[in-house]
Amino acid sequence: MRKKERVAAILTKLEETYRGQGTALHYRTPFELLVAVVLSAQCTDERVNKVTARLFPEYDTPEKLGNLTQEQMEEKIRDCGLFRSKARNILGLCRKLVEEFHSEVPQDMKSLLSLPGVGRKTADVMLSVAFGQPAIAVDTHVFRVAHRLGLSQGADPLAVEQDLMKLIPRAQWGEAHHWFIWHGRKLCKARKPECTACPVVDLCPSRIL
């Protein structure tokens, strides 16, 4: 089977398995999603959702959240881990949104990357999930699944992203990102991949049976 055909078969199987699965983060606006994604670094989505369930009802705009002190912010997001640096970055991005972007989350990569605490993965998530633009955000799950399926040998997330963008039809970038994440969480786990239950096991060069 040629690589193009194998990729198409993989995508079909993953779509059948994870169709309709989007981000697990809870949010109502692009701003809330941005804050949630920043909080999710080295933290589970479940824990982030617990923190934002307390945070967003009262602080749902850059103005409101940006008015907190560093100490107040740290206390509110402490459960997410790395809370000092995350608090500093969230306060910084809130102030920059107010001062430079009329309190709106920008919809282009360059502007998103100018915000404190926002790297390429976070920017890709915002473009894809919040604004419906074609993008593939590469987190640890996407990175691992892409490598195991033989779709990339990239040494860093950007290289993997570029490889996937070449292989996956542009119209499927956003959905495929979620399929890879859910597959990595549910079956293609870091330590003990559940290959016997995997829908793409016959297409996987890394299968363990």
From TrEMBL:
Cofactor(s) demanded: [4Fe-4S] cluster
Record has Nucleotide-binding as a keyword: no
Gene3D superfamilies listed in its UniProt record: Helix-hairpin-Helix base-excision DNA repair enzymes (C-terminal), Hypothetical protein, domain 2
First-tier enzyme category under EC: lyase
NCBIfam families cross-referenced by the UniProt entry: nth
Species: Acidaminococcus fermentans (strain ATCC 25085 / DSM 20731 / CCUG 9996 / CIP 106432 / VR4)
UniProt keyword list: 4Fe-4S, DNA damage, DNA repair, DNA-binding, Endonuclease, Glycosidase, Hydrolase, Iron, Iron-sulfur, Lyase, Metal-binding, Nuclease
Record GO terms (molecular function): 4 iron, 4 sulfur cluster binding; class I DNA-(apurinic or apyrimidinic site) endonuclease activity; DNA binding; DNA N-glycosylase activity; metal ion binding
GO biological process: base-excision repair, AP site formation
Keyword Nuclease: yes
Cofactor binding note from Swiss-Prot or TrEMBL: Binds 1 [4Fe-4S] cluster.
Family from the record: Belongs to the Nth/MutY family.
Reactions catalysed, as given in the entry: 2'-deoxyribonucleotide-(2'-deoxyribose 5'-phosphate)-2'-deoxyribonucleotide-DNA = a 3'-end 2'-deoxyribonucleotide-(2,3-dehydro-2,3-deoxyribose 5'-phosphate)-DNA + a 5'-end 5'-phospho-2'-deoxyribonucleoside-DNA + H(+)
Record's signal peptide: none
Top-level lineage group: Bacteria
The protein's name in its UniProt record: Endonuclease III
InterPro entries: DNA_glycosylase, Endonuclease-III-like_CS2, Endonuclease3_FeS-loop_motif, HhH-GPD_domain, HhH_base_excis_C, HhH_motif, Nth
The enzyme's E.C. designation: 4.2.99.18
Function of the protein: DNA repair enzyme that has both DNA N-glycosylase activity and AP-lyase activity. The DNA N-glycosylase activity releases various damaged pyrimidines from DNA by cleaving the N-glycosidic bond, leaving an AP (apurinic/apyrimidinic) site. The AP-lyase activity cleaves the phosphodiester bond 3' to the AP site by a beta-elimination, leaving a 3'-terminal unsaturated sugar and a product with a terminal 5'-phosphate.
Domain HhH-GPD: 39-186
Residues involved in [4Fe-4S] cluster binding: 188, 195, 198, 204
